[in-house]
Amino acid sequence: MPACRTHEICWVMFGPAFAPSLKGSDMIEVKQPTVAIVDDDAAVRDSLRFLLEVIGHQAETFASAAAFLKAEMQWLGCLILDHHMPDMTGLELAERLRTGGANIPILLITGSPSPSIVARAAELGIDKVLEKPATEEDLLDFVSAAQS
Amino acid sequence: MHRNKGGLFPTDAGINTLTIAKTRRKAQRWSSGIGRRRGPGASVAATVPAQVSLDNIWKPSVTSAQVSDHRLAAIVESSDDAIIAKDLSGVVFAWNRAAERLFGYTASEMIGQPLTVIFPPDRMEEEAFILGRIARGDKVERYETTRRRKDGRMIRVSATVSPILDGNGRITGASKIVRDLTDRDAHETRIQDIQAELAHMQRLTELGQVVTSLVHEVNQPITAIKNYLSACRRLVATGNLKGVRTALDRMEDQAKRTSEIIERIRDFVKKRDVEMHVENLSHVIDEAVALMRSSLRGDGPTLTVRVDPAEPRAEIDKIQVQQVLFNLMRNGIEAMQDQPTRELMVATKSAQAGMVEISVADSGPGIPDDIRSRLFQPFVTTKPTGMGVGLSVCQGIVQLHGGRLWADDNAGGGTVFRFTVRGAGGRPAVVAP
Q1: Is the Cβ of A27 closer than 8 Å to some Cβ of chain B?
Q2: Which of residues B290 and B41 earns the better pLDDT score?
Q3: Which residue among B228, B234, B242 sits closest to A47, beta carbon to beta carbon?
Q4: Is ipTM over 0.85?
Q5: Closest residue of chain A to B243, computed from CA coordinates
Q6: Cβ separation B298–A84 shorter than 8 A
Q7: Residue A97 CA to chain centroid, in angstroms?
Q8: Could you please report the per-residue DSSP string of B193-231?
Q9: Contacts of B335 (CB under 8 A, 6+ apart)
Q10: HSE-CB for B185 with a 13 A CA cutoff
Q11: Which residues of chain A does B230 touch, with a Cβ-Cβ cutoff of 8 Å?
Q12: Which residues of B151-162 are buried (b: 16+ CB within 10 A; e: fewer)?
């Protein structure tokens, strides 16, 4: 499956290098569900994970929709989803999840939130659509509301 | 310089063709004919045979060759180029009608005057240079300069000056053929203006296309930097300097990434010289497709690339060919906007005479008949907001590559744009430094 290969390559290339090196005292140990981040841009997803971890959330990153689906995550709290991705877009992934009965909170981030994207997001019960780059406040509002 | 007595006088600067030949020492005969440069063995001489003859034209007194002289005089008089003769001190002794028109001085005003009358003050030293060459027996060919008319107006001219020899081969003066460059210069300036305008518009259109992908690409590192900044602020508040350092390093990486993107866009837009290298077509096409993809929203068409393994490389200017590909792909995608199936295929195949054909096929509605014949003309477009310079620019680039660009109907509906470039003929690709 080509998408999986892309994921592996990205992980090998960017995963260890970008994984936050916060350990022990840097982290606030709270047992809580994970925030999943799906974005094809390594820097975007890793920086978001870094920020969420600094705040004290558990976060997991995925380079593509396919990689996320393959991981079959347990303890999933909410999903932060980039819309503009090759192979499967954020909206397509959301559709797949909703069709499969998953009702987790979803935040869709897109470079240009066109009316058609916003309308489709509403149909799919996506909780929030934000324009990239999203503000810290908007992001954290969504995450803390979803995780609580 | 050749100085044979029975010489020809090739008038390079003139419209063509005044051949002046001296057949005998005493019975001089002038005849018109086609004056061309000859090979080294032929009798080529940049000399007007005798001052006497030129005198004869304006002061007919010799009887033996009067008829021919009159014929020549008529030719000289009706020439569109100014024909002037002066002695070795620069004093004018012949001035034809075209010279009267060009400089505004009549023959009677000029004959007996130094030719420097028509020289602009800052070009006076040119006369010494010209006369110096003439005195050595050399010719001055198509010398482009400025002269001043009687009314004071400066005009651009091209002058060819040749020594005049007497019957004994002695240099006695100079004949001068002067052509007006005003029309030519105006024409060239206009062409240059149009070309500059087209090039400018091409850059604007490209810029518009590139801006979309630029926005998307630059947005990524900026998003990352913002996230790290937010994290930093919190880490500083808790005194976690180790975490701050990590975040700072990554921000630096992302700032570098931003500069690189901007540098790349700048390169793409910058006017540059053509650089032909052997390139791997799959890389060239993949890069253009990647740029296209990044400028598309999520619901873009299906994009397929197929490179013929028989001729995988071509000798091209990569950036320019990518510009052509980018333009053609964008055209195809825009044409398919309202179509149920949207498939774009970029393919290559080896063509005749060592060429490679690159095609971009869409499943759009095809080209309207009224546009088809004018497809490659500038300012012809089917797009409501298009400028219509894209295809004409593409064609210019393809022609520069020794290929051609044309459009066919796609077998399954839609349009195929095809263009050819020179294949590499088995040579390996040049590895970029």
Answers
A1: no
A2: B290
A3: B228
A4: no
A5: A22
A6: yes
A7: 13
A8: HHHHHHHHHHHHHHHHHHHHHHHHHHHHHHHHHHHHHHH
A9: B362, B364, B365, B382, B414, B415
A10: 11
A11: 51, 136
A12: eeeebbbbbbbb
